[in-house]
Prior knowledge:
- The structure is a single chain.
- Strand 4 (85-88) and strand 5 (93-100) form a beta hairpin.
- The model is unreliable at 1-6 and 424-428 (pLDDT under 50).
- This protein has a six-stranded mixed sheet, with helices on both faces. Strands 7-11-8-10-9 form a five-stranded mixed sheet, with helices on both faces.
- The chain has 15 helices and eleven strands.
- It has helices spanning 53-60, 70-80, 104-116, 122-139, 143-156, 170-175, 178-188, 204-215, 266-277, 283-292, 323-340, 344-356, 365-377, 384-393, 397-407; strands at residues 12-15, 21-26, 32-39, 85-88, 93-100, 194-200, 238-243, 250-257, 296-303, 311-318, 414-419.
- It is of the alpha+beta class.
- It starts with 11 loop residues before the first strand and ends in a 9-residue tail after the last strand.
- It folds into two domains: 12-215, CATH 3.30.830.10; 238-419, Cytochrome Bc1 Complex, Chain A, domain 1, CATH 3.30.830.10.
Amino acid sequence: xxxxxxxxxxxxxxxxxxxxxxxxxxxxxxxxxxxxxxxxxxxxxxxxxxxxxxxxxxxxxxxxxxxxxxxxxxxxxxxxxxxxxxxxxxxxxxxxxxxxxxxxxxxxxxxxxxxxxxxxxxxxxxxxxxxxxxxxxxxxxxxxxxxxxxxxxxxxxxxxxxxxxxxxxxxxxxxxxxxxxxxxxxxxxxxxxxxxxxxxxxxxxxxxxxxxxxxxxxxxxxxxxxxxxxxxxxxxxxxxxxxxxxxxxxxxxxxxxxxxxxxxxxxxxxxxxxxxxxxxxxxxxxxxxxxxxxxxxxxxxxxxxxxxxxxxxxxxxxxxxxxxxxxxxxxxxxxxxxxxxxxxxxxxxxxxxxxxxxxxxxxxxxxxxxxxxxxxxxxxxxxxxxxxxxxxxxxxxxxxxxxxxxxxxxxxxxxxxxxxxxxxxxxx
Length: 428
């Protein structure tokens, strides 16, 4: 049973003096509550010499607070069958959980305590650092990860926050000490950039009062605009081969820099990307590369813009002997869509698919919470779920053709390939 109403979401929003925002959506399909607390801060704010700082902080933030030990936190969660999920991106640090409605007060208290008063114990930091270095070594042996990181470096450069590895490097993680983690937390994890979304079987006004009790007296610097430098537009095609002997598969990451989430062309770009590599089993790309030619284990494109000019990325996993043929097929589909634009049928099907998928984004308390966080972070409004179909309907054929012509130019693509192929100009 879906927890949403046919008329749309009806969230209640409150801003506190500290700048923190609380949004509550009442649902009653199940006796459960999702809590999603997000800070508009992430790896974009970390020093260049300490890449991975936000990621490492996220891995150790729940390992003890001024009021609760790591064991006490774990015991509280275990007794209630709850898991805290902590995640960091370029621009956000998020901690979330789902609990029974009867446990809401206790879990909200734990969650806010974890983000507000972490102590980052030295022994826990050392353990999480070691685990993170192990993750990096595993990533270094993964062709898909290496290709993705290689593409980011090509598109943005090592001096751009989007070009640096979000999990850091072994060297940078080894340089991050407890003082650095604590200073990053004190500087960036503050109420002025906090939004708490609560969705479930709870009274909205009572939930807001409880959130206010938990963050009362917490202060910090005011929020500042998020600044992401524009990437340099490549004049020529760039390619990087990452040789990984012994691998059975090659992974291709192929892409372009595009636009930010708040660009008015966003909906045209989304529809264009769906036609290229997402509709059905993978749009035009999968139809050509997987279905007709049978060359790829997977083939798709993705477009997930944020505050900066994000990439449109084509990914494909292929037999090493099919790399060149796959690149030719990607070039062909990219060029055709860029030059000729989509067909009327593709546009109609994509429009129907995107509008039809909106209810699926609101099927659970967790997904509603994520949806409302996205609305808050980008200032989309509390009625965005009701306005979104109209925004998609308003995109014209010319809008999509213009978006495709702007970005889909193979001669300016950046390409990174991770796998066993040894070619001239390869890098280790």
